[in-house]
Write a structure and sequence with these properties.
The chain starts with a strand and ends with a helix. Helices cover about 45% and strands about 15% of the residues. It is built from eleven helices and ten strands. Helix 4 links the parallel strand 4 and strand 5.
């Protein structure tokens, strides 16, 4: 089972794009993901990131995050896509804390904006958003109907939302340009406790094979050879590895080691 592995920006949340790119290259990833804050990202950030990508030869699997909310502007979301297009990103990650109608409207607009860029617009579901389940996400995408729409699967959100591997296997493969990957503990946060949900997602993820998720079944349900963004947000790893390249390598080594157990 062969998958290209990408360093997600969430592994190194305290570092900038250039550091993430260089850490990904040093550790031996096949690609990287970059965090683009439209309110802080400048043309100089784009130039610096582009230069680092040219030096390392790494492609960008995704840029994030377009977070659709009542208080966010569509022009800011378009800026994330424009940066992604400039850097050659294959995907842009979107989540929504808005109503269904507004989510459909904005995702449709973003898909149209992405035309000609080479990017897919991937909607991630999770109980921390208003698109809480895979069924809801697919319903939204059905209404969007644009060929650049996609759905993003993250094992921790799959588990916390009650989504099954069988449901993942039933997704149209054309809607799955990539997936995220991590493990997590068995204990699930209270769905009514937003702070606990966020803590679980940004601090308590586990290395592949060290948690309790049915990762093998989840991976088997995905399209063969799908690229995996290793989304290992972990306070323990941040404390253990202050150097970005060492942390990135620890995550990659653990992921590869677990994948080898499947062959």
């Amino acid at each position: 089972m062969s998958h290209k592995l990408s360093l997600a920006s969430g592994v190194l949340p305290e570092f900038g794009a250039v550091d993430v790119i260089e850490a990904g290259a040093a550790a031996g990833y096949d690609a990287v993901g970059l965090w683009v804050d439209p309110l802080e990202w400048t043309a100089q950030h784009t130039r610096d990131a582009h230069a680092a990508l040219q030096r390392t030869g790494l492609p960008v699997l995704d840029v994030e995050v377009v977070w659709i909310r009542p208080d966010t502007a569509l022009d800011d979301h378009r800026k994330v896509l424009d940066v992604g297009a400039r850097l050659g990103a294959a995907n842009v990650l979107c989540v929504s804390s808005h109503g269904e109608a507004e989510t459909i409207e904005q995702l449709t607009a973003l898909c149209r904006h992405a035309e000609g860029s080479g990017m897919r617009v991937a909607l991630e579901f999770g109980i921390f958003t208003e698109v809480k389940t895979l069924a809801q996400a697919l319903g939204v995408l059905d209404r969007v109907g644009h060929p650049l729409r996609a759905v993003l699967v993250d094992p921790i959100h799959v588990d916390r939302s009650g989504t099954t591997a069988a449901q993942i296997a039933a997704i149209d493969p054309a809607l799955l340009p990539y997936a995220q990957f991590c493990d997590a503990r068995a204990a699930r946060p209270d769905p009514a406790d937003f702070d606990a949900i966020i803590l679980d997602a940004v601090d308590l993820r586990e290395q592949a094979g060290e948690g309790a998720l049915p990762l093998a079944a989840m991976l088997q349900a995905l399209p063969q050879h799908i690229p995996l963004s290793i989304e290992l947000r972990s306070a323990a790893l941040r404390a253990a590895f202050s150097h970005p390249a060492l942390r990135a390598k620890a995550v990659l080594d653990a992921t590869r080691g677990w994948l080898e157990t499947l062959s």
